[in-house]
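Blinded run. Sample ID left blank on purpose so nobody reads anything into the name before looking at the predicted structure. Input follows.
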Amino acid sequence: MMARLLPVLLLLVAALIFPLAVEGIFLGVGIERQLGTVQKIFYFHVPLAWIMMLFGVVCGIAAAVQLRRQSRTAEAIAIAAGEMVILAGLGVLITGPIWGHASWGKAWTWDARQISTGLLWLVFVAYVLVRRYGAAGSERLAAALAIFGAVDVPIIYYAVKIWKTTHPSNDVVGSLPPEMWAALWPALGALLATATALVAIRARQELLEMDLDDAWVRAEDLGAAAAGAKGEAT
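Blinded prediction complete.
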């Protein structure tokens, strides 16, 4: 029961927070002097990046659990989280270059964080494709891809510290003025609630699909057994 109610509650929370987030971003925070209005992409780009990395780790852990324990719940969570990484990562890869072009004059500078983020997105695209279209026994390859993607997450986070990059450092968020924090947290909360609800819905859908596949197999077995019994009787 709670599994069904949780996505609804999260979406309701997101619906309440989103208007406050939009008001705070576009009305509560002034326009930045150098970047202008394009700086407001920050309030979407950063939360999407955090969501992408969070569900990348979730997918990797769930895939490892599924590989070891053959857990259907872990498998469903891994698939749903992997798809969310693709969705959130696409938002990151769209908003980042827009912001980068305004900041650096180039949409893409091939710095370490950009490359590692692009790699993460490609890895999870491969993971979802292998899970969806891979042949029998491809679960191990898919799990390896998910685990590799999860390992890439800390590389993304520490890239600006390990390598000299044009991307702002991780300390930028911590040094934000109070009015920017007041706009960032509602945006993060609304997007995270929406993402978590979608992952929960998608995981439940995947579990139901597995149960349906099992039901079809049982029906086919019963049909074959009934046909065999009928043939013996005649």
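Unblinding after everyone has recorded impressions. The chain has one domain: 2-233.
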